[in-house]
Specification:
The protein is α/β, with parallel strands linked by helices and 307 residues long. It is 39% helix and 19% strand. The protein is globular and about 50 Å long.
Length: 307
């Protein structure tokens, strides 16, 4: 496939404001980041909500609606809100954005894992906001829970709202979870997978591991799936290049990596989108437009969302 879907993950719930002055968390800044990323060539933007006052992760329906409707007013880009949220949120809080806003696509986390951020405390000592240090410390005892009962509920809710699951795969065993959900009828082929690599507690970001994930997905799911990759930190660009060459898509953005290159902070996710597109064009590929991405992934269209 010569068209590559580039996703920009705008803010996430991993990095905190003290790590980069460019990390967006106010509603208007997230809207602006989405528009910049769209203009740079991204077909999809992935959105987390944050408290506009201090940047702490938020599940506020009001904030999500303001962000998504603000993006829709200015851009045709596909918007994929998170259902991962943060480790302080309940499953019901995490899923509320889908029930209320019925987006075209939303994340679907395919299994439980340790999700640890606490080692970054060795690098960052001074914090702008009181919540940041304790938030990062708290991940030492955090298990990111996505058991089968919750996966069934997530599947049913997304089916009812005609929201496409973007299935997040943090380790190879979670591909088997997807195959089980398909066999039970909770997920329908073709599925859309996103390999999330380099998170402490998940699969390391190596070429061998990425190729293994693709191979296991083909073994368990056949050829009836499409896939993207996102990788933490300095692995973002290397894993993306390998994945595109293997026939997959690519996620960049400040959620996954605060840097444009070694020692240089990215001022916007759009800068990373531009870099990714320069690379794929050198390799003979072109970025998909939002409407091309909708056709490739079978999305319902922006006119059928509830925001």
């Amino acid at each position: 496939m010569s068209k590559v879907i580039i996703t920009a993950a705008l803010t996430g719930a991993i990095h905190t404001p003290s790590m980069s002055e460019y990390l967006p968390f106010k509603i208007e800044d997230l809207i602006e980041e989405a528009v910049r990323s769209d203009n740079a060539g991204a077909a999809v933007v992935h959105v987390h909500a944050r408290n506009p006052e201090d940047g702490s992760p938020s599940s506020s329906g009001e904030v999500f609606r303001a962000i998504l409707s603000g993006i829709k007013a200015r851009s045709n880009v596909v918007v994929t809100p998170t259902t991962g949220g943060s480790y302080t949120m309940t499953p019901r809080e995490r899923l509320a954005v889908v029930s209320a806003l019925e987006p075209e696509m939303a994340t679907f986390n395919a299994g439980s894992l340790n999700f640890a951020l606490y080692p970054v405390l060795e690098k960052y000592k001074d914090f702008k906001y009181d919540w940041e240090k304790s938030y990062l410390q708290g991940t030492e005892s955090f298990i990111f829970s996505n058991h089968f009962e919750s996966l069934h509920i997530y599947s049913q809710t997304m089916s009812e709202t005609n929201t496409r699951p973007e299935i997040e795969i943090y380790d190879v065993g979670q591909v088997n979870n997807v195959a089980q959900l398909v066999s039970e009828g909770y997920l329908k082929k073709p599925v859309y997978l996103q390999y999330v690599m380099g998170i402490l507690g998940g699969i390391p970001a190596t070429t061998d591991n990425l190729l293994y994930l693709i191979r296991e997905s083909k073994r368990l799911l056949g050829d009836d799936f499409k896939w993207s990759v996102c990788a933490a930190g300095r692995f973002q660009f290397a894993m993306g290049v390998v994945n595109v060459l293997e026939g997959g898509f690519w996620r960049v953005g400040l959620e996954d990596n605060l840097y444009l290159e070694k020692g240089v902070l990215a001022k916007s996710s759009a800068e990373q989108v531009e870099k990714a597109i320069r690379i794929i064009r050198e390799l003979g590929y072109e970025p998909a437009t939002p409407d091309e991405a909708r056709a490739i992934l079978g999305l319902k269209g922006l006119d059928k969302v509830n925001y």
